[in-house]
Amino acid sequence: MTEPRLIEISPVTRVEGHGKVTIHLNRDNQVDEARLHVVEFRGFERFIRGRLYWEVPVIVQRLCGICPVSHHLAGAKAMDQIVGVDVLPPTAEKMRRLMHYGQVMQSHVLHFFHLAAPDLLFGFEAPAERRNVFEILREKPELGRRAILMRQFGQEIIEATAGKKIHGTGAIPGGINRNLPVGTRDRFLARIDEMQRWALDALAIARDYTLANAGLVAGFGSFSSNHMSLVRDDGALDLYHGRLRAITADGGTIFDGLNYNDYHKVLVEDVRSWSYMKFPFIRALGPEAGWYRVGPLSRMNTARFIDTPLADAAHRELRAVTGGAPNNSTLTAHWARMIEVVHCVEKIHALLLDPDLQGSDLVAKGERRFEGVGVIEAPRGNLIHHYRVDENDQITFCNLIVSTTHNNEGMNRAVKDVAVKHLSGKDKITEGMLNQVEVAIRAYDPCLSCATHALGQMPLQIDLIDASGRLIDQASRDA
Prior knowledge:
With 479 residues, the protein is of the alpha+beta class.
């Protein structure tokens, strides 16, 4: 019997800000607890107070350099309510949707090819120097080229609709500030068929990996959970707008058709002393049973169907794996992401053919209000922006629940599952163990993961310390 020990992985940078993982082993050398800590305090909800409401869609983008469009649109949707607009002009809504589909496409492509694919193609235990996008470019140059050009296409869609590829200004309270010129539309249309072929090929990679490694996928960082997302009124997947739907691990309904302005009636944000990131749960179920997951896999579970044919066929194929029941296998999220890439390409194609994109009615006006909620399905999952504004047009209240926050409990459980299976009973730290922990966290694509470490090497340091504070073993890796 040994003394209790603590293993610490710090920093873990593939989250929104700085974090670390601590793994506690008991006297029998078994994992007792494993936690993902977010140790950076940003205070965004405080320092935005006092700013003018029309600044919000631009300011909130600074939360993230990878998914600024998601914050831009969630903030704009909340400000639509502040200016009294419930229905946007067709050109405005369709331009925003085009922007959003471009964003989800490029973000998913970046995550899949730059972060996930090295593990999937070369193996979790492959040498660290091989698990990066440059090795994909060297060994599979055509695949690497497609990854770059697909992301470029999505970024150019964002630029055309928002004005810039990063931190654009396209969405404004009540609408949009530009339409899509015919020449720009035609340049995108000339490439859309190629994007569709490549998206389907990428989907096949993710699907085939999941099916060929069904045993690994089923048991890696996986567990039963509730799931939540927006869905359209008819139950279809809708990444831009809809009502909130939450289901249990076996597909039972927790709530459905909920106006997202009432999110605070069904969700509670718990606080724990060891992390600056909150732990949301569903009020009716309580903190122990009410936690849930969001993101591509959850959206595949909550949506009854997808309204684009290729993605819908892929959705049915994924659901068939579990006989139509929700899929709770964490690594299946990669398959789900690529289904959404196909869906986004199909949506982009349909929108490019819509003459409303060349319309001139861009902004609507209404009766001034003092509170607004904007909700969108960001690449990583559900994103909530909630604001109150005073009579001087200044923000007095801001609450943000980002995708990574929704997934906080799920990520912690995934880390513990991997730690129990790969660390219990061991007294030496291996590089393979480091990567197993990374893979568990990476499956959720937590915010800033893509921007911070594109090489696929998370800078880690793990210290193995006994109860007296003596250092037993140490392993580290620099980015």
